[in-house]
Design a protein that fits this description.
114 residues, mainly beta, Metal Binding Protein, Guanine Nucleotide Exchange Factor, Chain A, three-stranded antiparallel β-sheet, carbon-sulfur lyase activity, CENP-V/GFA, metal ion binding
Length: 114
């Protein structure tokens, strides 16, 4: 299990699984945010804090709910549906407490062309 949060800690979460590779998307949103995305089933992520300070941003096709903290602006995860129809969480690996980012395999994804 991994623990994570936004910068100020108002949004905290736990996620089951071992992260070894992340998707590095070059779309206009992900590249600006610096996301390194780890995809897991939605049921694997549990929000352990209040959601009072959690805001949501959607863009383009409005199918992914990017959640971020209304206080610090940090975006720890997003929720959506996989191409196979499964509810999915995209975890920003940069918001995980104990992950060494330099050990992760980065998979480039051309979201700019999608």
């Amino acid at each position: 299990m991994q623990k994570g949060s936004c910068h100020c800690g108002q949004i905290a979460f736990e996620v089951d699984g071992d992260v070894s590779q992340v998707l590095e998307c070059n779309c206009s949103y992900c590249s600006r945010k610096g996301y390194l995305l780890w995809f897991v089933p939605r049921a694997s992520l549990r929000i352990t804090s209040s959601t009072d300070r959690m805001s949501t941003y959607q863009f383009n096709k409005h199918v992914i709910s990017h959640h971020f903290c209304a206080d610090c602006g940090c975006a720890p995860f997003a929720f959506g549906v996989s191409p196979q129809g499964e509810e999915t969480a995209a975890v920003n690996a940069r918001c995980l407490e104990t992950v060494a980012l330099d050990t992760l395999t980065r998979i480039p994804f051309d979201g700019r062309s999608a």
